[in-house]
Every structure is written in structure tokens, then in C-alpha cells.
Amino acid sequence: MNNQTIRPITPHTRPQSPRSLTVLLGQGCVLLALAASVLPAQAADITVDIQPLPSSEGWVMVSLFERSADYPHNIRYGQRIAASRQVAGQPLQLVFTQLQPGRYALSAYQDKDGNGKLNTNVMGIPNEPVGFSNNAKASFGQPSFDSAAFEVGPQGARVNLTLQ
Q1: pTM given for the model
Q2: pLDDT tens per residue, range 93-111
Q3: Residue 115: pLDDT band by 50, 70, 90 thresholds?
Q4: What is the pLDDT of residue 31?
Q5: DSSP calls for 109-124
Q6: In this structure, are residues 130 and 117 in contact, taking their beta carbons and an 8 Å threshold?
Q7: Do residues 16 and 128 touch, judged by C-beta distance below 8 A?
Q8: CA 158/CA 89 separation, integer angstroms
């Protein structure tokens, strides 16, 4: 009798045939593809620089719209920031975070008296400063979504806005 140790074949020591290795690699690729499809798409931020305000009174109300069908009534995201946070001569800055890349539009106004709404005259013309992304101009009512829309890529976007 030979004094040789006999080792059982385990999954770790078993030699792989080229066919079974290919199957394992293929299954690994499928698992990676499934994991990637479950992970959320890359989130982006929009940094909004509101050019120096005419005054530091009240609040700046900023609305972000995601679709032309929602504009200008169904606000996707909104932020309210105290106008007094503005540093003299510097833009007032705010950030919308964790957004999906896509097409968006912004509208903003300075609620000087803090009543929570845009004050207008009898003809509906704003008495408080207003502005839109792309500095889109309003003639009779708000500018269109397309004129105010901008693209946000995976790296995010920076938008300048002037209230007038």
C-alpha cells in the first residue's frame, strides 16, 4: 500500500473545463448588468446664481419645472431663500440637488412684502421683481417653457438668473 494522501476534490480545487468557465463568466456579466440596472441614474445638481437683488427685503421664491406640461403651474421643486442672505454686490446662490439629467426651466420672484405671492397690478403686471432661466422675457404672461428651458447633464448645470 502506498502512503500517499488522497484529497477530495472540492469546488475550490476542481479544475474548470473551458465550457463551465465560460458559463460562469456569462452569469457574472448578467449579474453585473442586473445590478447596474437597479442602481439609480446619476443624480445632478443645478446651481442657481441670482444676480444682485434690487433690495434685501423679503424672500426670493424660485420654482423649478421639469416638463412643459407642468409649466408654469405645477412646480416640481421650489425653494424660498431670505433676500437678506445676499452679500452686497454678489449673486444670491441656491442649489437644487439630486435631480435626474434632463430639460428644466426656472422662474423666480422677490416677494418683498413676504405675503407668499407675486403682487401684480390690475392688469396682471408684476409689482415685484421676476425672472426666468435663460433670462427669457415675458411679454404678456410668462415666457414659454422652451424659451426658459436648459439642459442638465450628469455633471449638473449652473444657471444665471436676473430679477427685474
Answers
A1: 0.72
A2: 999 999 999 999 999 999 9
A3: very high
A4: 46
A5: EEETT-SSS--B-TTS
A6: no
A7: no
A8: 19
- Number of C-beta neighbours around residue 47 at 10 A: 14
| Cell representation of residue 52 | 444682485
pLDDT in tens, 25-70: 455 444 444 444 444 557 899 999 999 898 899 999 999 999 888 8
Read off the C-alpha cell for 63.
420654482
Instruction: Return all residues near 19 (Cβ < 8 A) that are at least 6 apart.
Output: none
SS (H, E, C) 6-46: CCCCCCCCCCCCHHHHHHHHHHHHHHHHHHHHHCCCCCEEE
Q: First vs last Cα of the chain: how many Å apart?
A: 100
pLDDT score for 161: 93
Q: Which amino acid is at 14?
A: R
Q: What is the pLDDT of residue 41?
A: 56
Cα distances from 100 to residues 43, 92, 152, 153, in angstroms, run 5, 24, 8, 8
Q: Please name the residue that has the C-alpha cell 449652473.
A: 158
Question: Residues for the chain: how many in total?
Answer: 164
Contacts of 43 (CB under 8 A, 6+ apart): 97, 98, 99, 100
